[in-house]
Specification:
Blueprint lengths: L16 E5 L6 E2 L2 E2 L3 H15 L3 E5 L19 H8 L4 E3 L5 H7 L7 E4 L6 H5 L2 H8 L4 E4 L21 E3 L1 H15 L5 E5 L8 H7 L5 E4 L1 H10 L14 H14 L2 E3 L3 E5 L8 E5 L8 E5 L1 H12 L3 E5 L12 H15 L4 E5 L1 H9 L8 E3 L3 H7 L5 H4 L8
Parallel strand pairs: 1-4, 1-7, 4-6, 5-6, 7-8, 9-10, 9-15, 10-11, 15-16, 16-17
Antiparallel strand pairs: 2-3, 12-13, 12-14
Helix pairs in contact: 1-2, 8-9, 10-11
């Protein structure tokens, strides 16, 4: 995987306008940013570029505005939180294209940071329209992509600009790409993958791809119930997909043919109600009653999976093992994550995790910093696990870059 980084830029960027594709699409409530994780991830790139004298212009989408500008989706409301994270003033431009905006960029002082208005206020963004790409390119001299979370979209600000301006990966993008390469590109073996989530139907491509790439595939969450049902086990009222039993069996057969061991729980935690702290019991998977639902995997399954991880050199994790949002049905996810974190800190395991629920579970357990790398990307991380090319990443490759 060959791509240029900030290390390939001149040490002195004074007089250069650097367009940085950021992910400023942060959650908000009552006009305030409620989670600044993505802003904090952007800080190393912005601080380095500004420190080297560049005028930094941040491009991003924000929400899903329809048909044009909408104050509810203006990036102006993100500026105060970003300024607080960066520890310096942050300017704002009221549009992302146009002669007047270009003129303003030409007078931005070295070391300044400016947010440019929501790129999705223009239809050309999502269409990757060449004319819109050209208009965006007039704002800067160089292009830095630091938004892996938007890299699965072939939009003007994520893919098009890389073909119009000299392009580089920002520090967050660089770290993400190196971690993903270490996880599935050229990993240390054996490799284990943990894939959780509610539905097999949403992760067929992930599972089909992974059985060819890893030695161990652990299936958790509601998906495990579908695989259990496909093997003839009664899962009671558990969330599962009867229409995908044949698909589950086909994936299991493919895993066996590829020499990948498929791991399903043989003890589970069941309850009669889907709620926090519901009465529950631990049973063998063959003893689930008709009026019970599986909400987590059991302690024997966690112990067995811990033994699997002991023998692995790399772990890729996407999705919780149980209904982690409802205690105590987060027990298995936290226990196995804690074990993986310990192996990582001891230097025995390269651990890469991603996906919204996974990140939430690791953060809630205070374990995210103990993994080798935790990706905050959702759709991009999932498409990477499916083995798909990500347009925003492919465009950064040196031979493709302008």
């Amino acid at each position: 995987m060959s791509f240029a980084t900030l290390d390939d830029l001149p040490a002195d960027l004074t007089g250069k306008r650097v367009l940085v594709r950021a992910d400023l699409n942060v959650p908000m409530a009552d006009g305030r940013v409620t989670d600044a994780t993505r802003l904090e991830a952007l800080r190393p790139t912005v601080a380095e570029l500004a420190g080297r004298g560049a005028a930094v212009l941040l491009l991003s989408h924000f929400g899903r505005p329809k048909g044009g500008p909408d104050p509810a989706f203006s990036l102006a409301q993100v500026v105060p939180a970003l300024a607080a994270v960066l520890g310096q003033p942050v300017g704002f431009l009221a549009d992302c294209v146009g002669d007047s905006i270009v003129r303003e960029t030409l007078h931005l002082p070295p070391g300044s940071v400016t947010v440019v208005e929501n790129t999705r206020f223009h239809a050309g963004e999502e269409k990757n329209d060449p004319a819109f790409v050209e208009a965006l390119a007039k704002l800067g001299d160089l292009f830095v992509n630091d938004a892996f979370s938007a890299a699965h979209r072939a939009h003007a600000s994520t893919e098009g600009l890389a073909h119009r301006l000299p392009c580089f990966a920002g520090r967050a993008m660089e770290a993400e790409l190196k971690a993903l390469e270490a996880a599935l590109g050229k990993p240390k073996r054996p490799v284990a993958a943990i894939v959780g989530g509610a539905k097999v139907s949403t992760k067929i491509e992930v599972l089909t791809h992974l059985v060819e790439k890893v030695e161990h595939l652990v299936i958790g969450g509601g998906m495990a119930n579908t695989f259990l049902a496909a093997s003839g086990i009664t899962v009671g009222k558990s969330l599962h997909e009867p229409d995908f039993l044949a698909t589950a069996n086909a994936i299991a057969e493919r895993a066996q043919a590829a020499g990948c061991t498929l791991h399903l729980p043989y003890d589970v935690v069941v309850a009669h109600e889907f709620r926090a702290h519901a009465d529950h019991r631990i049973v063998n998977v063959h003893h689930v009653e008709a009026d019970e639902m599986i909400l987590d995997i059991g302690p024997q399954a966690v112990e067995a999976l811990s033994d699997v991880l002991k023998g692995c050199a790399t772990l890729v994790w996407n999705g919780p093992l149980g209904a982690f949002e409802l205690p105590p049905f987060d027990t298995a996810t936290v226990a196995l994550a804690r074990f993986a974190a310990a192996l990582t800190q001891e230097g025995h395991l390269v651990s890469v995790a991603g996906g919204g629920d996974t990140v939430a579970a690791l953060n809630a357990a205070g374990l995210a910093r103990d993994f080798t790398f935790v990706s905050t990307a959702g759709g991009a991380f999932l498409e990477w696990m499916e083995g798909k090319d990500l347009p925003g990443v492919t465009a950064l490759m040196k031979e493709r870059c302008a």
